[in-house]
Sequence to fold (653 residues):
Amino acid sequence: MTDRTPHPQTDLLTSAGPVAAPAAPAGRPRADAEALYAQAAADRLGFWAEQARLLSWEKPFTTVLDDTEAPFHRWFTDGTLNASANCLDRHVAAGLGDRVAYHWHGEEGETRTITYAGLLDEVQRFANALRGLGVTAGDVVGIHLPMIPEAVVAMLACARIGAVHNVVFGGFAPQAVGERLAACRARVLVTVDGARRKGRVTAVKQTLEETLRTLPDLEHVVVVGATGASCPMWPGRDSWYAEQCAAADPVCPAVPLPAEHPLFILYSSGSTAAPKGIVHTTGGYLTGVSYTHRIVFALDPERDVWFCTADIGWITGHSYLVYGPLLNGVTSVLFEGAPDHPHKAIWWELVERYGVTQLYTAPTAIRAAMNWGEELPGRHDLSSLRLLGSVGEPINPTAWQWYHRVIGGGRCPIVDTWWQTETGSIMIAPLPGATDAKPGSATRPLPGVSAELLDADGTPIATGTGLLALTEPWPSMLRTLYGDDQRYLDTYFSRFGKDTYLVGDAARLDEDGHYWILGRTDDVINVSGHRLSTAEVESAVAAHPGVAEVAVVAVPDELTGQAVVAFVTPAAARTGDAALEAELREHISVRIGKLARPKKIVWVEGLPKTRSGKIIRRLLRDLVTGQETGDVTTLGEPDVMAALTAAVTPPTH
Ligand code: PRX
Fold:
């Protein structure tokens, strides 16, 4: 099915946030979009420079791209700017201080309305507070907070003084938080006394305490008092956020920083157990997110109410809950809670209440809403919606159709947006009103983005299936992996050279030049749009004393896209039973987080291995997905397969 609904769209090339936002004309002519693709193709660097100039630069850049040390690309190098000034000060200076930046909606229905001026005020205070704790430009500040406004304040306060934020997802367990703080040598952590989740409060700071004491670089912990949960405070190290802000000087001018100054590090799972610290810098990242947010979502900052449901701890939260919307001067909904609390129609209630115009969410959430039934969205007036977005995994056509019909009332275009933590901003997506959407396809690379599909030798494929690659640098690309330039080279550029960023996804390219993402080609599992590394889960399971050996594979799952299945050989003293299963599930929750818990644990006496002892996960995957097991000739012990088949096959009575 093709969605050919025309869609009102502002003039995306000239709307630099609210400052110059024109009224929305009634539809974007297809020819305009084609002109945009053509302009970018004819002069890619000129095109990006034009996008970058829509930001406010303290010192304008003259160099667009410096690729002398490719693939360590540098953009807009001689310019200086500040991210928080671009998100806040310029809008306030333009008279938009009273515009709502966030409608915050708490789990229990409490609300806070945060204007651009109000946000600027709190950011300045907290930036001064961080300074008071000795934080200077280049220092790393960890942020481990739930979906509360202080998370945004903390990020922008760091950006204001040139500190580098490392947001660690609130759902991670203490050990995973500790690893991510230790790896980037965070000097300060901003966290919370307690986090609410579905009516329960977790004492976050108290639970983290033991881990925090193991971090030699951590000098200060600032605690947001959000719930009154029990919270031990270490004299000299710990302080309360509210007291820090109250005592701080209210004025903190934004520090102009070189475009290549690091803005943040965000850890993402790779194919080894050690998470990758993805580094994004200031000028290029801001250019990419503001441009893509404007163009893909057809923004009209004067009128739009934007609702991105991603957690702030993932890249989607960074790019499209914080930086993109603020750079473009949009009003957002920031929802603290889970989609099914206090009831399963809460998102639709929020859409009606705040008059949401664009909703950006993940296929897994759409599938869950489908399961809950269409009478729930039917109870609310969703007529304010005019555009729907999808991100994180391929959207299956059934979910696409449901999203289009039930949530979009058959009138809202859907933009399926493909991108990654590494790309910083959306790379492949339709332009609403101008690209014919195809359910399940992210369609074309955006103007300014160069993608190709390659075969195993690196030769471009015109149509068919292959490896997705990005073949020209783009401003919001990661600059390196924190502290590990070699891993950056090895992970993304070793196979086809420094000019070809290998994405790690397989895709199909159709006759219209549209991409259909098929999934990862590495050992990364995508559970509910969150990346998990097979190796990270395996090493957590293997650390349990009841386990002799483990292998983890991904299987397709109707709700979460993919799910984890663990094949476990119990240690000699243990048997594979319900007690060990419960222990392992708890153990994984504590080591990584609940999202890594296996859907299924299969007890096995041995794992399929090559003669050199390497586990052949492919065979396990075939077994659990009920496929013919492929080539078994490399197996060291061929008999193991019969026992494995028996282990995954339920007994017949
Ligand atoms: O496999 C692709 C999948 O998510 C991966 C990136 O994960 P992460 O860095 O956590 O970022 C998620 C949010 C941007 C990709 O390599 N992916 C992301 N978006 C899509 C997708 N797969 C299919 N369609 C998408 N729209």
About this structure: The pocket of adenosine-5'-monophosphate-propyl ester is lined by residues 268, 315-316, 391-394, 416-421, 442, 503-505, 517, 520, 526, 529, 531 (CB under 6 Å). The chain has a mean pLDDT of 91. The domain at 11-506 is CATH 3.40.50.12780 (Rossmann fold). Residues 238 and 604 are 47 Å apart (CA to CA).
